[in-house]
Amino acid sequence: MNDSDVALPDAEPLAAVVDLGTALRELIEVSVTTTVHPAEVRTAADLVRQVTERLAVARRPASQLSALDDPSTGRRVFNPVSGPGNGMAPPLRLRRAEDGLVGEATLGVAYEGPPSYVHGGMSALLMDQVLGDTAAAAGVWGMTVHLELDYRGPLPVGEKLAFRGRVAETTGRKSLIVGTIALAAAPDEPLVEARGLFVLPRQEKLTTIFGGITDASGEHRPPSRATDATAVEDE
Amino acid sequence: MNDSDVALPDAEPLAAVVDLGTALRELIEVSVTTTVHPAEVRTAADLVRQVTERLAVARRPASQLSALDDPSTGRRVFNPVSGPGNGMAPPLRLRRAEDGLVGEATLGVAYEGPPSYVHGGMSALLMDQVLGDTAAAAGVWGMTVHLELDYRGPLPVGEKLAFRGRVAETTGRKSLIVGTIALAAAPDEPLVEARGLFVLPRQEKLTTIFGGITDASGEHRPPSRATDATAVEDE
Question: Is B227 within a domain?
Fold first, then answer.
């Protein structure tokens, strides 16, 4: 680590952000399961606000990408599903498999819908990411136009889950991606099946939608490919 | 507030949990936008871990409902979409309208997918909750069996969004619920349209799925109706 300002991502700024994301993830899970006295909960809230104050002294606007994000590789450190720097993200890490992407994640009580099961909408959130990353990994990035899920059985909280995505069809700017969620112990028995239609917006629409986006140096940086491929691990 | 242990929810335990949820929500948003030096980020992570340690001294298992949850009213304080005690939840608050439920929420950068827009999967997560709550509010609670979304346009981060849900059809244990997300400034121009099929599991299936669930006193408490209706505000 050095003390100079760094414009490009390097190891320590990324490691620090991942460290905070990891710590926050653990705190969220403990915060929804703690049974300590309300006075202790109040103290925790005060301490959390002190941390927030320290970090809030310098912030980027929503229109400016994090210095740790890299539009050229699609790295998105704070993605709410796959970003290790986002305390809300499990985070879901995907890797290339024979015919698409695969990955595993264990979701805690913080992700719960019905008692002891993952919130049905969480499956949708995660599958949108899996399908989108699958499209991106196949070079056919697009924005979600249609997403559809069938729920065969509930996903238990605290058990390792297996995620899969593969490209079913590609025509021009459109791609149909399919995927599943299953118990990691029984990956071939899908409990959730998903289909997503992703479309790469036309150039003029990209300009309209992302016209104001800049990187950390202030340079205009509209996404033109996978913005969320951070979850795909290089092998 | 008193110092005695309370088995039933009362005002202060709930207020304390909401206070911590609110503080965590703010910290998550600041943590993904801060531009402070990595050393400061590391300090923040250390402080967060200290808070986690304090809260981790006493915890409930996933099979035991929080003492603040009330199966008889469906209150779920830590729901990841509508629970004010969950730092991941916006939280989305819904209220009864003429033909269903409506509500508003503003999603910060922590919920971002493409730069400056809400993650497509977040719309799915939120709509699953809206549709499920709409079913529950109409007395036809069930678990998500099918969820489908059409995305007409991206939802900007940091702008107030309007959510709507209404029962389209009910037959026996099944209900088809529809809903939309729009800018609160233009609530009649949906940017996301969703349809969900919810089915109340048969009694034997409920027993199988929720056989091990207890309330905070250890009594068996399988859900038999809306478990996530916490978001519906009484008027």
Answer: yes
